[in-house]
Design brief:
Blueprint: H1 7-28, E1 30-31, H2 46-49, H3 54-68, E2 77-82, H4 89-101, E3 108-112, H5 120-124, H6 132-138, E4 154-157, H7 166-170, H8 173-185, E5 188-192, H9 201-206, E6 211-217, H10 223-235, E7 240-246, E8 249-250, H11 254-257, E9 270-271
Helix pairs in contact: 3-4
């Protein structure tokens, strides 16, 4: 008579494996340290601080996929938004901007257009003011931000002083003129903008750009919010072109971990938490 499966033993086996896996992830996980580098750039900007790590490679993959969407006419000006807060859009914006700036002989500019809750100045270690709001309200000279790169081919414009009317500024003729000027001087323009559901900033800005990436946090963002975000972007003609999943636990099995001298930048699992 053939042996029968003992479902209880099978269940116990997989529960034990799950427990072992969780323990190994806990002991071997690498959580990005928010301390700044010597250059003042937050170490969570791994494309700059740890370019050989697994997560940095994923950002370069996003860059490659983004550029391959329209090979005949590359997406030059894009915005990154999320459905709601705390989904990792600003960390993603910074890392993607650094990845784009690493393209040979390419110039990239990163713009903090989240004037309601700006964070790029903290991540890059630069002053918050003057910034975008001063350009759009006081005719502050854009040339001020184009003189010296943050690193390599990356330039940045911080948010500036928080205005009372961010949406109106992002739909203004001054913003359109600024984008036109930047298109003539930069290969890539990356806007980090406020979440799409609570406010209209991404809707009004997206109309003037080539595409919108929606940032989605694993285990956090609800499906109904993702659907709502895509609906708002589509209705506003903000050109949604895809999504980036953040805060994913990446686990490398121990048998690969032992051979870290071969798999140097895949040698440890990486748990990534964005703001």
């Amino acid at each position: 008579m053939p042996d029968t499966f003992d479902l209880g033993k099978i269940k116990s086996f997989f529960l034990e494996k799950k427990k072992s896996l969780q323990e190994e992830i806990t002991t071997r996980s690498y959580v990005a340290d928010p301390d700044p580098t010597d250059e003042g750039i937050d170490s969570r900007i791994v494309v700059f601080s740890d370019p050989s790590c697994h997560v940095a490679e994923q950002y370069r993959t996003i860059r490659t996929n983004l550029l391959s969407l329209s090979p005949d006419k590359p997406l030059q000006a894009i915005q990154l938004t999320s459905a709601l807060h705390s989904e990792g859009k600003t960390i993603t914006s910074c890392n993607l901007a650094f990845a784009l700036a690493q393209e040979p002989e390419k110039k990239t500019i990163l713009i903090d257009s989240d004037m309601r809750k700006p964070a790029i100045h903290k991540l890059l270690g630069i002053p918050k003011e003057p910034g975008l709001s001063e350009i759009l309200t006081k005719d502050f000279d854009l040339e001020h931000f184009l003189q010296r790169p943050i690193a390599g081919g990356l330039y940045a414009i911080p948010a500036g002083k928080g205005p009372a009317n961010p949406s109106e500024l992002l739909s203004s003729s001054r913003l359109r003129r600024m984008v036109t000027r930047l298109r003539s001087e930069f290969d890539y323009i990356v806007f980090d903008v406020s979440p799409i559901i609570p406010v209209t900033d991404a809707s009004v800005l997206g109309k003037q750009l080539d595409g919108t990436l929606l940032i989605v946090r694993a285990g956090w963002t609800q499906a109904i919010d993702i659907e709502r975000a895509y609906s708002l972007l589509t209705e506003a003609q903000a050109k949604p072109i895809g999504s980036v999943l953040t805060c994913v636990v990446s686990y490398i099995p121990y048998y690969l971990y032992r051979y870290r001298y071969i798999y140097s930048h895949y040698a440890r699992p990486y748990v990534y938490y964005g703001p």
